[in-house]
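Next comes a concrete protein, fold included:
___
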Amino acid sequence: MLGTQAKTLLRCYSTEASPAIRSTLLLQRKPIITADQPAFQKSFYRYQKELWKRLMWTFPKWFWFRPGTVSELRFRELNKRPFYNNPNVEFVGGRPDVQHNRDRRHKQVVKLPQTYDDKSKEVDELSRRIVPNSRTTQADKNNDLMSLERKLARTLYLLVSQDGKKWNFPSFAINGSPLHQAAEEGLYSIAGKQLNYFNVSKKPCHVHNSPNEKSFFIKSYLLSGQFDVKDSGLKHLWLTKEEVGQHLDKDYYQEVEHLLNEI
């Protein structure tokens, strides 16, 4: 017969506490303007533009300025005739290719005679010259990392810190709530409800495991609104992908790098 100890089944339970579940918010502001063009791309488009100008149809002077009129005389004073290909003359820059009073080696620049005084005419909002705004904002000039108006052509990510030394993505305890709801409540607790955002999915896009907790990443986009941090002791930054790598731990950044956009 088996002894009493052999018949007794002992159940062993682990006394180690389970890791805490947290919802980490990967909040990003998408680019507002088009991406910056590399130097090669700028050169390519500039070459195509200049080539198009050289191949365009010659300006029909005879249609707009009738020969023998005062307007035609003013036009000829502003637009000098090109040098013709004289075989007895040596041209250092290459022999001209003149067709219809135009050197086809270069783009045609037409100067039109002024028929009225620009200063005496009032320019309304519809007729005014359109001048594009600068791609560099005041926040870029001041290097204000807390402003959402910096790096308009790049995606910015929100990092927070309590002491200004150790930075991380906003992370919140779930307290029995779903992951996406905990991230939403945590965002409102940081910046209030005067903002418009949406979650890409209710499901996490990444899981970070540490000895004491599991962090589930919820990706969100900030669309508009006022981002005002309520807690004066909480510091925040809006950073690009490269800047995020400079503020996070090296191993931690390598783990989440694939979640960040290059642009």
Observations:
- Confidence is low (pLDDT under 50) at residues 1-15.
